[in-house]
Amino acid sequence: MLTIGTLAKRTGTKVQTIRYYEQIGLLPEPGRSAGGQRRYGDSELDRLSFVRHARQLGFSLDAIRELLDLSDHPDKSCAEADAIARRQLKQVEQRMARLEALRTELQRMVHECSGGHTADCRVLEVLRDHSECLTDHDEIGA
Amino acid sequence: MLTIGTLAKRTGTKVQTIRYYEQIGLLPEPGRSAGGQRRYGDSELDRLSFVRHARQLGFSLDAIRELLDLSDHPDKSCAEADAIARRQLKQVEQRMARLEALRTELQRMVHECSGGHTADCRVLEVLRDHSECLTDHDEIGA
DNA sequence: TTTACACCCTCTAGCTACTGTAGGTTCAAG
DNA sequence: CTTGAACCTACAGTAGCTAGAGGGTGTAAA
């Protein structure tokens, strides 16, 4: 039987995060000690590891909920899990493409800056004049 | 004199977002019509364009605040603006490296999935077994 | 002039995925 | 039996918006 702190250490999660996952129903309510403290077994350890690993791969908590549900029903078709993973892959690829454009523009800004006064700063100039920009006007926060 | 809606359209920003920027002090309080509606001029248009462009490049609102301040003081040294941009570039490069690792693992998951039942799903299996994983145990959400 | 309707106003709450704090209780070692 | 680390609940805060309620304004046509 593990305490919440031990579980946290084993999975690289903060204690609060574990309680949060329980609160939003991602982890089941665990057993308690006589004094009311949470006590975990191996199944909870596995489940939390699954969640953390999926988070590290960038899956949203909603996606993880679906994946957990699929994992709990071994007879269901694999297609759904596959679709979720493909969706995630696509998102990652889109983000990478977007970041690459950003990197290019940032590099340009930085390389062209000569280091004088802000009046002639290339960095600020580029930010001021959107017309020189390579990236377009759509989504922020890729 | 522009209404907030016009300003929003011209800069590709939502009306609410403009009011939000004003609220957190990123944009100055504009003049008002007799009836109390916001009216903007060209300087506000420029300032908002600057903000949006910087946001598109992934700068945080705090970083943008600094950049705006530098932009308002043409005699200051350019070094600070340069440092902010370099910091941002570094962050973008880190995120890209991280996403590349994710992409690799996601591709592996997806390619190895044969499409049967979830019991044998490669996607779920990889998530379950962290030891097969190439990415390490640190930050989430790169 | 009235009326229609798009647009504007403030205020508040909600989103994701946590993280931190306050004020108190439990557990295990010594 | 005492100490101190670890636990408990409950609530507030983070970034950067976004959405909704409930009402007021501005302008153009009838």
Description:
2 copies of one chain form a homodimer. By secondary structure, chain A is mainly alpha-helical. Among the domains of chain A are: 4-59, Orthogonal Bundle (Multidrug-efflux Transporter Regulator, Chain: A, Domain 2); 94-132, no CATH class. The first copy, chain A, is built from 6 helices and 2 strands; from the N terminus they run H-H-E-E-H-H-H-H. Chain A has a two-stranded antiparallel ribbon. Chain A is elongated and about 70 Å long. Residues 134-142 of chain A have low confidence and may be disordered. Chains A and B meet through helix 3, helix 4, helix 5 and helix 6 of A and helix 3, helix 4, helix 5 and helix 6 of B. Chain B binds a DNA duplex (30 and 30 nucleotides) through residues 3-5, 14-17, 19-20, 24, 33-38, 55, 60-62, 140-141.
Brief account:
The first copy, chain A, has helices at 4-11, 15-23, 42-56, 61-72, 79-112, 122-128; strands at residues 31-32, 38-39.
Helix content of chain A: 55-70%
Strand content of chain A: under 5%
Mean pLDDT of chain A: 88
Structural class of chain A: mainly alpha
The oligomeric status of these chains comes to homodimer
Query: What best-fitting shape of chain A do the alpha-carbon axes yield?
Result: elongated
Spans of chain A of at least 5 consecutive residues whose pLDDT stays below 50 are 134-142
Distance between the termini of chain A: 42 Å
State the CATH architecture of the domain at 4-59 in chain A. Orthogonal Bundle
Task: Indicate the radius of gyration of chain A in whole angstroms.
Answer: 23 Å
- Let me know the largest β-sheet of chain A: 2 strands, antiparallel
Protein name (chains A, B): Helix-turn-helix domain-containing protein
Coiled coil (chains A, B): 82-112
Keywords (chains A, B): Coiled coil, DNA-binding, Transcription, Transcription regulation
GO molecular function (chains A, B): DNA binding; DNA-binding transcription factor activity
